[in-house]
Amino acid sequence: MYSIARNPEVLHATVGEALVLLNPETLAYFEFNEVGVAIWQMLDGGAMSEVAVVGQLLADFEVDEDRCRGAVGAFVDQAEAKGLLVVDRH
């Protein structure tokens, strides 16, 4: 189990229906899909456990738990690698 938080340095804005993020350290920008947007919004109040994120997504979307857990893991790994999220794996 791990906790996930937004990188406080990352800038974000809604453009139309899309959420666009800018990592000022790398000057790279990213656009999230619907699930990424949902996770980003969940983290607005601070860090959350992976279990809580998966639980909230299961409540909000019609998705199989194993598929949801896999999608969250893949999203977190990619967003962490791009410097968008801070992950505490302890």
Structure description:
With 90 residues, this protein is an alpha+beta fold. It has a single domain, classed as Outer Surface Protein A, domain 3, CATH 3.90.930. The chain is 41% helix and 29% strand. The chain has 3 helices and 6 strands; from the N terminus they run ββββαβααβ. The protein has helices at residues 34-42, 50-60, 65-81, and strands at 3-6, 11-15, 18-23, 28-32, 48-49, 85-88. The strands form 2 sheets. Strands 5-1-6 form a 3-stranded antiparallel sheet. The chain has a 3-stranded antiparallel sheet with strand order 2-3-4. A hairpin with a 2-residue loop joins strand 2 (11-15) and strand 3. The chain starts with a strand and ends with a strand. The model has no long low-confidence stretch (mean pLDDT 93).
The CATH class: Alpha Beta
Helical proportion, percent range: 40-55%
Structural class: alpha+beta
Kindly state the number of beta strands. Answer: 6
Strand fraction equals 25-35%
Strand numbers in spatial order across the main sheet: 5-1-6
- The CATH level-2 architecture is identified as Alpha-Beta Complex
Biggest beta sheet attributes: 3 strands, antiparallel
Order of helices and strands: EEEEHEHHE
Basic shape: globular
Number of domains: 1
